[in-house]
Amino acid sequence: MGIFQPLELSTNLSPFNRCDRIQAVMKVRSIRGFKDILPDSIKRWHYIEDSAGNIFELYGFSEIRIPVVEFTDIFARSIGTSTDIVEKEMYSFTDRDGSSITLRPEGTAGVVRAYIENSLYAKSTISKLYYMGMMFRHERPQKGRYRGFYQIGAELFGTKDPYADSEIILMLWRFLEKIEVTSLIRLELSSLGDENCRPSYKQKLVKYLRPLKNELCENCQRRLEVNPLRILDCKEKKCKEISKDAPSMLDNLCDNCNKHLDHVKDSLENFSIKYILNPRIVRGLDYYTRTVFEIKTDELGAQNAVAAGGRYDGLVEELGGPPTPAVGFSIGMERLVLLHEKIVPVGFQKGVDAFIAFIGKDTKKTAFQFAYDFRKQGISVEMEYENKSLKTQLKKADKLGAKYAIIVGEEELARGKVKVRNMGSSSEEEINIDKVKQLSIKLSN
Ligand code: HAM
């Protein structure tokens, strides 16, 4: 039975009855793998996003906003046709004009497209761009893995200098330090070589794996032909066992790639950023050259990558721009939020500065005026809509974390006064109505 049932709703039913019936027959729900971010957690999201923006700006990055859809071809050519993302995870549709378009599975390809299309390379040698937004991948949903998820990312265009790699990693680490999650994470670093050394490494790897082909999982048997490096990242026990003794990319880097990696390592060491060299980082996207890195955690079960990135010196040219080296990263927001909740469990609830309570007749209008005046001065206040007991109103003030409750009572109002209750100490004092303005000044400081 589908969730949509034909409804026979009598027009005589009251709106509430109609609503109840609609809800009973047609249960509304979100699409699997997509979730709401509710007001309870939005302050934490804002805090994390604002911290990222503030820190990235210190490093000279500016925000870019790109569309959530691109021509499918942009992603296929960037991420690689034999990657899991392009093979089976993209949300692709045929547009009304027959063109194939795709909801972005990541941000880098779109940023590169925007960089080329808007000739940003002509405006300055270096471009530093950051972005935040929703990405879409049709993966099997589980904790920390969604079909609609948010990323914060940064991309630096225009230099091959390893200092750019270090700067990108240092900026990412500084941000993670600022939001206090570094005790739960580790930085893993590697190099995937370049067009000089990777092809011969691939050959070596295939030569090692080919005699063991039948022992690999079905997926890796296919990968051996199309994307052998991905075998190093397979989670299947038998593949892990086989690839344990496979030749390592790090032992097969050419001189230039080796020097580049040494520079990045030195620079991180200079700033006492601890890293683990992990030659098995292969990344699920094909555009990388040289430096690759991942921020991992042991706190989130299988979804252990909180952020990832690296250098992609060929992508701008591949998509039709001038040869432009680049390096960047993206952070998975949901995973970062889960980590942040472990470190700072409370203190991110939405609260107000003051609560305006009213008791008795003809007080609501004055209370409503106070609320307006406070808000106009940038102070957040709440008040009750319906007449409720003072006890109920103060309970609500407490729940909202109000520092003060301004109690507008009939008898006090007649004397030109209101009561101000300090919600922390429960002490109360009466003040003249014209002093309420001074209270708002006090609250705004
Ligand atoms: P990625 O490794 O595919 O790289 O994704 C980056 C991060 O996004 C992951 O480490 C993870 O935290 C988060 N993420 C990925 N898939 C999901 C999912 N289904 N649910 C929740 N979180 C997820 C990229 O996207 C590259 N664009 C990174 C980059 C930027 N490289 C250079 N510049």
Query: What do we call the CATH topology of the largest domain?
Result: BirA Bifunctional Protein, domain 2
Main β-sheet, in a few words?
Answer: 8 strands, mixed
Strand fraction equals 15-25%
- Choose one word for the global shape: elongated
For the record, what is the CATH homologous superfamily label of the largest domain?
Bira Bifunctional Protein, Domain 2
Low-confidence stretches: 1-10
Bound molecules: histidyl-adenosine monophosphate
Structural class: alpha+beta
Q: Give the spatial strand order of the biggest sheet.
A: 1-5-6-11-10-9-7-8
* Number of helices, where a helix is a run of at least 4 consecutive DSSP H or I residues: 17
Task: Give the mean pLDDT.
Answer: 92
Q: Please estimate the helix content.
A: 25-40%
How would you characterize this protein structure?
The chain is built from 17 helices and 16 strands. The chain has 445 residues and is α+β, with helices and mostly antiparallel strands. It has two domains: 39-197 and 253-343, 2-Layer Sandwich (BirA Bifunctional Protein, domain 2); 354-444, 3-Layer(aba) Sandwich (Rossmann fold), CATH 3.40.50. Strand 15 (417-422) and strand 16 form a beta hairpin. Histidyl-adenosine monophosphate binds at residues 106-108, 137, 139, 145-146, 149, 151, 153, 155, 284-285, 305-310, 328-330, 332, 334-335.
Summarize the structure.
The chain is an alpha+beta fold and 445 residues long.
Keywords, separated by commas or semicolons:
445 residues, alpha+beta, BirA Bifunctional Protein, domain 2, Rossmann fold, five-stranded mixed β-sheet, 17 helices, 16 strands, elongated, disordered N terminus, binds histidyl-adenosine monophosphate
